[in-house]
Amino acid sequence: MTHIGSYDERLKHFDWSIAEKELDYQDGQIINIGWYCTDRICEMGKAGKTALFWEGFGGKEKHYTFNDIRLASNTIGQFLRDLGIREEDRVCLFMDRIPELYLSFLGVLKIGAIVQPLFSAFGDESLWVRLENAQTKTIITQRKHVSKVRKILDKMPFLEHIILVDHQSSKPLQDREVAFDLDTADPVEHLEVAPTKAESPSVLHYTSGTTGQPKGVKHVHYSLISQYITARWILDLQEDDIYWCTADPGWVTGTSYGIIGAWSNGVTQCVLDTGFSADAWYRFIDKYKITVWYSAPTAIRSLMKAGEEVVQKHDLSSLRHLASVGEPLNAEAVLWSEKVFGKPFLDTYWQTETGSIMISNYPGMKIKPGSMGKPFPGIEATLLDPKTFVPIRNTGKIGLIAFKPGWPAMMRTYWKNDEMFQEKIKNGWYLAGDRSTIDPDGYYWFIGRDDDVINTGGHLVSPFEVESALLEHEAVGESAVVAKPDPVNMEVVKAFITLKPGYQVTDDLELNIMNFIRKKLSPLAMPQDIEYVDSLPKTRSGKIMRRILHAKEWGEDIGDTSTLEDDE
Amino acid sequence: MEDLKDIVLQYVIEEYMEDEDDEITFDTPLISGGYVDSFSMVSLLVFLEKKFNIKIPEDRATPEAFDTVHSIVALVQEYIKE
Question: Which chain B positions have a beta carbon within 8 Å of A145's beta carbon?
């Protein structure tokens, strides 16, 4: 029996108070995500239940009960408080998927500070713009990443502490650095959890837009209501499940469903902190007898590419429910998973700003492979006319995906940029930035983004950010960055570049530019294809027309070019 | 052979090792060990193709084939011979 039962029945009787009641929460009371994921589960009699099976490179393993994660998050919280971290201070987590990342997330929330998780593969420039925007007071990181912090330290007078979780005592700590070893720290049995309320800020995730620098998406502790109930009804997390969310907590899936969703439901989860290989992933599922698996289309397509032979080497019969997020899941991948695993991956749709799943396929509901599914009960969704922002009534017509504001996990604003947040609200609807159609049965079908942002492997990359970084390369005169189709990652970054006088295309230059961006921004932002051009298409006012280059890459009609300065 | 192995190892150390305390050998798992991610693998592929003037087909540039310096060298040698 699934938790959701009948989708249609849930739709008729839904109210967010269902989740509030299950969590014993009443309006106006204290609500703290860190407490709900640890102390409350222990108080429910599950202190000895496994919360986390962790495996790292080289077969390293760790195992934590709910009481262990309660104590560890208390210990980290107290350590931060003793350092002077106070409510609403920003604490950045800049780590690989090691246990300290997950436990620090809860510890920061418990003391009422704002947790700012950042993808550990970010280069120093990407790190800098996000820390500077948030005026981050403390960063928790590892030896392998601290050099990137040290490189930009002089520009960050606001950053008071750099906490190293794996410091070697043989090496001296540098300016503002402090060591913290969770394994040897005295466990803190009692921590006074901050009395956060529904609208107290909790998590600050950064996301990329078409223009400007990355935006900090501000979430609040009340987001728990959405994350708890969607994890229960869509991922169908049940008491005996062993759950694996493959997302990195540097991104929203890795926190909403890689930490909060599972642990607020008291469910055991697994984390694999190694690089990708099909054999390693299947072995992991087999070893821990994973039952619910939440992954991404890019990973699923990579598994498809690895073939079925490797699947046969492992016993994957424990799997009972599969779901996917990050980019549209193509019908072939749904059908392939049904054939190979005996069950389909169910696509879910949401984004950093929504904080929780908005449109989805549900256990027990008829699946139309390639469709995003239907809105979650309690979510009012529609398609808007791109010009008038009025809801489109007739099915089959392409419109902008929009949601009526007010669900618990909706972002409250962009950090220090409320104006941009307000621009996302049109005619009383929140615009998601994607286009879709709805079929006569009410299923949504993804068409594409409504802007130039590149979705590569389920992660958003801002063309503006890459173009700005490219201009800092000594050989680059001008640049335009667009999405290029890719069979595995859906899209990858492609750069069109003009060279400065005196520079010529050489074998080394392409690699040099690629590595320049990889280290400065991140591997995701690295152009996987560079095309050198004599000039870039521009409007008469001098603005580079990315859409012309995008259309060429995708074999689409380039549309009206009457404003082009340099028409071909 | 030794030269080729050393060139690849040196490049990997210079470009992808973030922790100066990490020591890698010809057999260290690069992809499954988390040193080189799937996106960065593309820049490693470009390096190999430019450096050794070869073209490695897309279906051969897999995470498994790029997982150690030894396996990379074996792959590169196939195309140098052609």
Answer: 18
